[in-house]
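Training component of the fellowship. As part of building independent skills, the fellow (R.M.) carried out the full modelling exercise for a liganded target. The chosen ligand was D-serine. The inputs are recorded below so that the supervisory panel can assess the work.
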Amino acid sequence: MTTETTATRDTQVFDLIAQEQHRQESGIELIASENFVSPAVMEAAGSVLTNKYAEGLPGKRYYGGCEVVDHVEQIAIDRAKELFGATWVNVQPHSGANANTAVFVACLHPGDTILGFDLSHGGHLTHGSSVNISGKYFRPTFYGVERETGVINYDVVEETAKRERPKMLICGASAYSRDWDYARLRAIADEVGALLLADVSHPAGLIAKGLLNDPLAHAHIVTTTTHKTLRGTRGGMIMMRNDFENPFGIKTMKGETRLMSSLLDSGVFPGTQGGPLEHIIAAKAVAFGEALTDDFYDYAVRVKSNAQAMAKAFTDRGYSIISGGTDNHLMLIDLRSKGLTGKLAENTLIKADITINKNMVPFDDKSPMVTSGMRVGTAAMTTRGLNESDMEQVVVYIDKVLMNHDDAATLATVKEEINEWMKAFPLFKS
Ligand code: DSN
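Fellow's submitted model of the complex:
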């Protein structure tokens, strides 16, 4: 052991981290699921708490020496409850995928039917895709958007639920720009005897500040990541506003029916995870503290207004946005009217230091590795301080790059301009 920092010894890794910081600072980040955390969040994530094993829950651990991390984890839980109006939270899931898997393990048996939003219409891998455990261990069925509107028709969701009789109805998406009717979804779930799971990973930060419908008022269980619009460290969590007796008749050792919260805690540990990442839980606590502030409310408002400005700028330039606009922080753009693929857009924009991801559009005729769409979001660039007119300028650059995708000189010029422009929006304010 030496007092010399790893940073001075392991140049191979730390040079790469410096390169990544430079990439993040010099470019325009539009991946809708990304954001930039504060130095305080990074400090907590990089702290000595990484050294501690703490299987179990605060006050009920399988290891000694957990007094401090108990306190840290309880702060994270309490702040999450306050943010979302929850009465029960588990902050241990390492990711959104882990949070969903823990819910499935707690609530379903292998082979049970689940009904989720189709991945190819904007849904998520963990909501029943055949390549994910959710689609391999359970019987996945799906609803999607209407071809004409790009919007979910809840009458069709209801018809599908009545036909498929799922044990769990799942809502939430990774590329759907409209808000959700959680009350209607709960009515559908009740009608067919399903549990309603809302995965709000993408819009969580906007929901926390009351800028979108409240899923906790209706869904039995809510999962989220902590690193998208919520602007925390990479991670996940599970929440409920109203705990309830599990409907599966599972009893405690004393013969009492176990509460759902108890099953969900077990679904996380020991069901699907081992030791919690207490350094990451500390970083979640710090991020939740930030999200509780009025500054974060202002941020969330700007995320939405920036997305609307961006959607308008794209539309004004003849781009087609699925569903015609956005209620949240993201939008899915169908590039077919411009004669482009998502793959070409992603690969060309990165040459000008604009990062987006290619994305399937509903009823896409191209493969997931090519796609007809691109997804963009405003969470990250709003953190850097860009406003509505800046977002219009971003669209001007995107359009210029895409319309000149085989002109290396234009791409190089745009890249230079962007690198210079981004100096006005430092990642770390000194
Ligand atoms: N892969 C994330 C996204 O980009 O939306 C969701 O898990």
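The panel noted the following from the submitted structure. The mean pLDDT is 96. The first strand starts at residue 28 and ends at 29.
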